[in-house]
């Protein structure tokens, strides 16, 4: 399968590396320099198993990925407008998969002309080391669901590498995205403000009290979600990634823009729409926005 990947940050490199072992991958990074390096050196994935390097093609992002059988968009949510401009020039029959945190991108997807759109959530941990190297800090799976249309080629993606880099197709994109957004809204802002690894949200009793307070605020917004299941899910993520730094903490430490608007901002918008107060979450949002402004 010919797969184009828009974005060559941590997630883009991780998917380019793994899918490049089994498919013909073309990367569409932001700069000509990164495209040159990817063409010369390929992508190297390091992590819990033996490091590997795969050869990929690369072109600067403004080039339309119009000859692909699947396009995967891995840029962060606040950069999606640029990717959308590229997608609008593409053949609308080419399926597109979006891998972003949060749910703020759904209105943008409604405006796209593509006949087949999928959304996904990423359970892998990834950290970009340099322009061609990514560290896989945790192995999980990629959850997929159709936002629009259907695609017979999904079978080839699901069967790519089920034992080492699995994809799972789910029936309801809204519930899938909401569960991931819920977990991110609990873990990312709090770790970014406290500057701690994920595990300390449970093992430090004072941090755990705030963690629980945020949970109680957010679960009250979504009666469709099971309280017990969501508590087990978010605490399980903290335990399984106890030595990891959240992506938002990494962004804050780098002085980079965070995805706070796409994640906790969505929760605040939901609370306002339902006329509910979530004061602890609102305070965390303002703290992260303040750190962004400072940087």
Automatic annotation (TrEMBL):
It catalyses: (R)-pantoate + NADP(+) = 2-dehydropantoate + NADPH + H(+). Residues 3-147 form the Ketopantoate reductase N-terminal domain. GO terms for cellular component: cytoplasm. It comes from the Bacteria. Pathway: Cofactor biosynthesis; (R)-pantothenate biosynthesis; (R)-pantoate from 3-methyl-2-oxobutanoate: step 2/2. Residues 177-292 form the Ketopantoate reductase C-terminal domain. Gene3D superfamilies: N-(1-d-carboxylethyl)-l-norvaline Dehydrogenase, domain 2 (1.10.1040.10), NAD(P)-binding Rossmann-like Domain (3.40.50.720). Keywords: NADP, Oxidoreductase, Pantothenate biosynthesis. Its EC number is 1.1.1.169. GO terms for molecular function: 2-dehydropantoate 2-reductase activity; NADP binding. SUPFAM superfamilies: 6-phosphogluconate dehydrogenase C-terminal domain-like, NAD(P)-binding Rossmann-fold domains. GO terms for biological process: pantothenate biosynthetic process. Catalyzes the NADPH-dependent reduction of ketopantoate into pantoic acid. NCBIfam families: apbA_panE, PRK06522.2-4. Belongs to the ketopantoate reductase family. This is 2-dehydropantoate 2-reductase.
């Amino acid at each position: 399968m010919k797969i184009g990947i828009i974005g060559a940050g941590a997630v883009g490199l991780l998917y380019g590396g793994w899918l490049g072992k089994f498919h013909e991958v073309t990367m569409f990074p932001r700069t000509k320099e990164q495209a040159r390096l990817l063409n010369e050196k390929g992508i190297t994935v390091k992590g819990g198993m033996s490091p590997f390097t795969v050869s990929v093609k690369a072109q600067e992002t403004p080039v339309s990925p119009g000859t692909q059988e699947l396009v995967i968009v891995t840029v962060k949510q606040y950069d999606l407008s640029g990717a959308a401009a590229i997608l609008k020039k593409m053949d609308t029959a080419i399926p597109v998969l979006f891998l972003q945190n949060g749910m703020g991108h759904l209105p943008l997807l409604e405006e796209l002309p593509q006949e087949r759109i999928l959304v996904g959530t990423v359970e892998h941990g990834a950290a970009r080391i340099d322009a061609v190297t990514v560290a896989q800090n945790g192995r999980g799976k990629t959850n997929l669901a159709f936002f629009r249309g259907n695609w017979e080629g999904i079978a080839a993606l699901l069967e790519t590498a089920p034992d080492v880099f699995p994809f799972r197709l789910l029936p309801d994109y809204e519930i899938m995205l909401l569960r991931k957004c819920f977990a991110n809204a609990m873990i990312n802002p709090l770790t970014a403000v406290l500057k701690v690894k994920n595990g300390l949200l449970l093992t430090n009793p004072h941090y755990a009290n705030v963690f629980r307070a945020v949970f109680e605020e957010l679960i009250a917004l979504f009666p469709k979600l099971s309280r017990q299941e969501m508590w087990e899910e978010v605490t399980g993520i903290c335990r399984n990634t106890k030595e990891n730094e959240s992506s938002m903490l990494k962004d804050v430490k780098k002085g980079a823009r965070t995805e706070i608007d796409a994640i906790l901002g969505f929760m605040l918008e939901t609370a306002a729409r339902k006329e509910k107060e979530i004061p602890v979450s609102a305070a965390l949002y303002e703290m992260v926005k303040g750190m962004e402004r400072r940087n």
